[in-house]
TrEMBL record:
Keyword annotations: Signal, Transferase
Lineage: Eukaryota, Metazoa, Chordata, Craniata, Vertebrata
Name recorded for this polypeptide: Sulfotransferase
GO BP annotations, alphabetical order: N-acetylglucosamine metabolic process; sulfur compound metabolic process
Originating organism: Pangasianodon hypophthalmus (Striped catfish)
GO molecular function (one): N-acetylglucosamine 6-O-sulfotransferase activity
The protein's Enzyme Commission number: 2.8.2.-
Amino acid sequence: MTRMEGHQTTMKCSRKVVLFLVCLCLAVQYTAIRSIQDLFPRPCQDSRQCQKCPEKDHSWKSSYNNNSVPTKHTTVSARKHIHLFSQTRSGSSFAGQLFNQHPDIFYMYEPLYHAQQTFCNYSKCLWKPMDRVVQAVYRDLLFNLYTCDLNFLENYIQPEPQDHLTASFFRQTSSHALCSPPVCQEGDKEIMEGQPDESWCHKKCRILNLTLASMACQSRSHVSIKTVRIPQVSDLRLLTEDPRLDLRIIHLVRDPRAILASRITAFTDQFIAWKIWNATDRQPHYVDLTQITRTCQDMVYSVDIGLKKPDWLRGRYLLVRYEDLALNPEAKAKEIYKFLDLDIDNKVLTWISQNTNVTSSTSSKYSTSRDSKTTPESWRLNLGFDIVKTVQTLCNDTLALLGYKIVQSEVELRNIRNSLVEPRTF
Ligand SMILES: *[C@@H]1O[C@H](CO)[C@@H](O)[C@H](O)[C@H]1NC(C)=O
Ligand SMILES: *[C@@H]1O[C@H](CO)[C@@H](O)[C@H](O)[C@H]1NC(C)=O
Ligand SMILES: *[C@@H]1O[C@H](CO)[C@@H](O)[C@H](O)[C@H]1NC(C)=O
Ligand SMILES: *[C@@H]1O[C@H](CO)[C@@H](O)[C@H](O)[C@H]1NC(C)=O
Ligand SMILES: *[C@@H]1O[C@H](CO)[C@@H](O)[C@H](O)[C@H]1NC(C)=O
Ligand SMILES: *[C@@H]1O[C@H](CO)[C@@H](O)[C@H](O)[C@H]1NC(C)=O
């Protein structure tokens, strides 16, 4: 045998070894996934749903890659992937409860927080939120969470989870599934007594097992994620185009004047200049107008696209004004569930009646429950007229597009009996 032939034989041989190893590896992965599925049978309660439940879960475990999506023979799953798409202080905690309270939905409250923390040190960020790199990271993370791989978050959680355990999961208590069995076995009594998770879960369920959380996600029929860190709906395009997800977007908007009033109250440190402006009715020269301007631009841009119904968004986009939801929570909730083609659960309706009811004793104790009939326009008593005028100039397009009336005088602003929310259907 010449040296050349010998070399070729070795190459053939090593190829075989590699092939064998690849097969072995795939087999091991397949077995592992099967055994997780066996542990938690897929949620196919009724037969109608069962027929639609595809036998293709191993593809779900792969990372986000549009190229590998089969274009033909794709069975669309009955599993809903719901995106509550909003901006800070737009009422999204409240709206998120419409999903969090549903026993078949696995709800996550702003998981992108963890990814953002790795780019940012306090308010200084390595990248701007618009950067494509950041959006790619968010998209990857969202895809993995929608397919119930919560372990993917371990790359971002600080301090790094050990043995898949963490005590630092952002707003764990806002996710009912992460406060109930099998993820947390501790809260039987509290859940039975109907105590809100926020009041006890932090104490009793603090150490979160992310593997267990992933399994709990798989065992529920649908997944819903709320984000306030994605600027524009077009940043979700690749996800809406992925036939494995069949994504539905609920775009929650709110009057930018109300958003601003709420931010000034909630984030006092960052809004000191605004506080001074509000108190004196004179604009300090160092006040930063870029944030509210960008909020309005992002809103108008996304609503514009959503209402134009491009192919990649058709049937997947529902615009909801927070004011309409707050004034008529039950009717709006039913409309949202109809759009999702899901049955609303009695637990959701019960939560609404208990938390949007002025006379109910539990209301207004927790951030998501409120006297919703007065809240949406109470900002009008809270914001100096000079600020209002400025926002009306900066955000005139947004206000007009969404049906929020502008005021010409302070008297008009304070006269809360005349609503500034025009009736609209979108
Ligand atoms: C992703 O895949 C879908 C379906 O195959 C296709 O319509 C869409 O154009 C793809 N998007 C990109 C950015 O490749
Ligand atoms: C954040 O920045 C400050 C100073 O700008 C620095 O002292 C601190 O160590 C940084 N923290 C992290 C986690 O990088
Ligand atoms: C986390 O949960 C998984 C699944 O139940 C279990 O196998 C594992 O032992 C748990 N991890 C720890 C550290 O308890
Ligand atoms: C509001 O709460 C009160 C007291 O809990 C209750 O009696 C009443 O039926 C509730 N109303 C609605 C509309 O749910
Ligand atoms: C603005 O000032 C008024 C008093 O002029 C005060 O009642 C209100 O709480 C202030 N609003 C904010 C958001 O600080
Ligand atoms: C908003 O203001 C800009 C600049 O003054 C103007 O060009 C635009 O037409 C206004 N939009 C509406 C809806 O009034």
